[in-house]
Amino acid sequence: MRTVTFSLVLATVGRTAELDRLFVSLAAQTFHDFEVIVVDQNTDDRLAPHLERAISLGVVVRHMRHHPPNLAAARNAGIDAATGTWVGFPDDDCWYDSALLEKLEARIADDNAPAGIIVRWIEQDRPAVVAPYLTWARSSQFRDVPVSSITMFFQRSLFDRIGVFDCRMGIGQWFGAAEETDLVLRALQSGATVVYEPAAYVHHALTAPNPKADPQTRRAARQRARGTGALYAKHPLPAWVIVRGLVAPILRPLLKGALGAELAHGCAVALGRLDGFLGWNRRQK
């Protein structure tokens, strides 16, 4: 099978129409040496017309099935199947700037090519990373991470050194998030050079926060926060960072005098982080 520069691993379940916007943006790329590995976690053929449309636009698509649904495991299957020397992870509801891959290719063509590149999520108010490259010293204090999977591009060979996504973490798991941050932290601990490239960017609509903080929203926040708590237990982070992370969600609304829904949400986040911190080692036994 021919090697390409970029393998874009697209793990998807449930969504259909959103994929069309992504595929149109991929067809419009000014750099064309890439493949899209669609890791389909649906139990039906709902993706068929959308994949056919992508192929008609000239996008190189490889379609594979993965069950049961698990975002991290699906991405790992895509990594295993990738022929690219670099791997990216678009969400099924994001879309790329037309020059994104061209700008990345120019960066990796340098003799001092990094092991990983973080691009800009343009819809955020400011760049998620302000330093020209990520360091363990700052990232272990959560100064530059977490970064979103849609902004991450890594050399395929890096996964052979540090492993792939941790399937115990992420959407739908008890530790409901942070698998992307975990991967970045492991990369930095291994000594990999990970740089930030603000000139290359990806689009993804921002989800507006729910000001009511109803019970369902708080439950979801607690589940996601368990992923952050798992990071506290899994990585050699400074003790003060862990204490700050457990206390800050409650302290911030108290200092603002926000004693209603905002405090309730903060308590859910703090409890989730504590769940994850205490539960990580217990659940690995």
- What count of helical segments does DSSP give? 10
Number of domains: 2
Rg on CA atoms, Å: 19 Å
Number of E-state strands? 9
CATH class of the largest domain: Alpha Beta
Distance between the termini: 41 Å
Helix content: 40-55%
CATH architecture of the largest domain: Alpha-Beta Complex
**Unreliable residue runs:** none
CATH superfamily of the largest domain: Spore Coat Polysaccharide Biosynthesis Protein SpsA, Chain A
Structural class by SSE content = alpha/beta
Biggest pleated sheet: 9 strands, mixed
The coarse silhouette is: globular
CATH topology of the largest domain: Spore Coat Polysaccharide Biosynthesis Protein SpsA, Chain A
What would the average pLDDT be, to the nearest integer? 92
Percent of residues in beta strands?
15-25%
Element order, helices and strands? EHEHEHEEHEEHEHHEHHH
Commentary on this structure:
This protein has 285 residues and is an alpha/beta fold. The protein folds into 2 domains: 6-203, Alpha-Beta Complex (Spore Coat Polysaccharide Biosynthesis Protein SpsA, Chain A), CATH 3.90.550; 215-284, no CATH class. Helix content is 44%, strand content 16%. It has helices at residues 17-27, 48-56, 71-81, 100-108, 136-139, 156-162, 179-189, 215-234, 239-256, 261-284; strands at 6-12, 34-40, 61-65, 86-88, 95-96, 116-121, 133-134, 152-155, 194-203. Strands 1, 2, 3, 4, 5, 6, 7, 8 and 9 form a 9-stranded mixed beta sheet that branches. The model has no long low-confidence stretch (mean pLDDT 92).
